[in-house]
């Protein structure tokens, strides 16, 4: 449980710091024999920092609960 708690805390911290990312895909718009027109399309992926905070707190709670159970 301690390892899971650390992993959740690290993922939560990263999600609080970085609230999203973008990736780009290339799509073929026109293909007329030797003439090709491509368009790059931007795809943003965003999440709320609240989700990261919840994961961070949950990870810390798991680590603290594990320490109390082992004593």
Structure description:
With 71 residues, the protein is α+β, with helices and mostly antiparallel strands. It has one domain (2-70). Helices cover 54% and strands 35% of the residues. The chain is built from 2 helices and 2 strands; from the N terminus they run αββα. The protein has helices at residues 2-17, 49-70; strands at 20-32, 35-46. The protein has a two-stranded antiparallel ribbon with strand order 1-2. Helix 1 runs antiparallel to helix 2 (49-70). The two termini are 15 Å apart. The model has no long low-confidence stretch (mean pLDDT 91).
Which descriptors would you attach to this protein?
two-stranded antiparallel ribbon; alpha+beta; 71 residues; 54% helix
What is the topology?
Blueprint: H1 2-17, E1 20-32, E2 35-46, H2 49-70
Antiparallel strand pairs: 1-2
Helix pairs in contact: 1-2
Shape estimate: rod-shaped
The overall strand count is 2
Order of the strands making up the biggest sheet: 1-2
Distance between the termini: 15 Å
Offer a quick outline of the entry.
With 71 residues, this protein is α+β, with helices and mostly antiparallel strands. It is 54% helix and 35% strand. It is built from two helices and two strands, in the order H-E-E-H.
């Amino acid at each position: 449980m301690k390892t899971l708690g650390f992993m959740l805390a690290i993922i939560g911290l990263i999600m609080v710091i970085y609230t999203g990312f973008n990736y780009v895909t290339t799509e073929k718009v026109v293909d007329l024999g030797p003439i090709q027109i491509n368009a790059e399309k931007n795809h943003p992926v965003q999440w709320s920092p609240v989700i990261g905070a919840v994961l961070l707190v949950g990870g810390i709670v798991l680590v603290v609960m594990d320490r109390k159970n082992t004593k």
